[in-house]
Task: structure prediction
Amino acid sequence: MKEGMLEFIKSRRSTRKYKPDQVPDEMLNEVIEAGRYAPSGGNNQTAHFLVFRDPEVLKTLAEMAEEEFAGMEVTEGMYKSLANSIQRAKLGGYVFHYNAPVLIAVANRADYSNNIADTSCCLENMMLMANALDLGSCWINQLKWLNENERITAYLRKLGLQEGERIYGAVSIGWPDTADGLPVREPLKRTGNEVTYI
Ligand SMILES: Cc1cc2nc3c(=O)[nH]c(=O)nc-3n(C[C@H](O)[C@H](O)[C@H](O)COP(=O)(O)O)c2cc1C
Result:
């Protein structure tokens, strides 16, 4: 089972430029299945996968997110990526999911203590499966940052987000817009993530 596994894990990289071509259903289902087979605290299995594929819905979501971020202010000590989203939204033309043809948002119960942990396992499984299928992927955190935004939440509710659920992360999926059409797989050097052996 271990043949090539570590190298494969190291080859998963974030893709931030996608071709517009849709992902075939069969591949998308395999990616989602990988997410659904992630472990969960106490085997709760309360993750809820919202699979956005409709270009009109994705466009609306991206425009709404841009408007909401543009109305926010960067504050002292703010998480750098959130500040970046606000600044880019204020400039206009900001598309938080990089125009990927698929965005899978993972929701979970707001009152469940392992919500973020379970979601993270689902997202990593899906990113690894996407890589195995030569698809690009990238963790997308913007919907999590907009969790308390009433306008976005109301729109997501109409699309299937259930009462008591929040989105704790998302992943963009699509064909990488690279010269050879494959994801960049050069491992990113680790300079952090310290290890202490005891
Ligand atoms: C919790 C988390 C949140 C992230 N949020 C975003 C995001 O909103 N947008 C984005 O482009 N990348 C996001 N990323 C991707 C990281 O920037 C990326 O994994 C990191 O720079 C390492 O690069 P690599 O994925 O190519 O190895 C996120 C990753 C994690 C784990």
In short: The domain at 15-174 is CATH 3.40.109.10 (NADH Oxidase). The two ends are 28 Å apart (CA to CA). The mean pLDDT is 98.
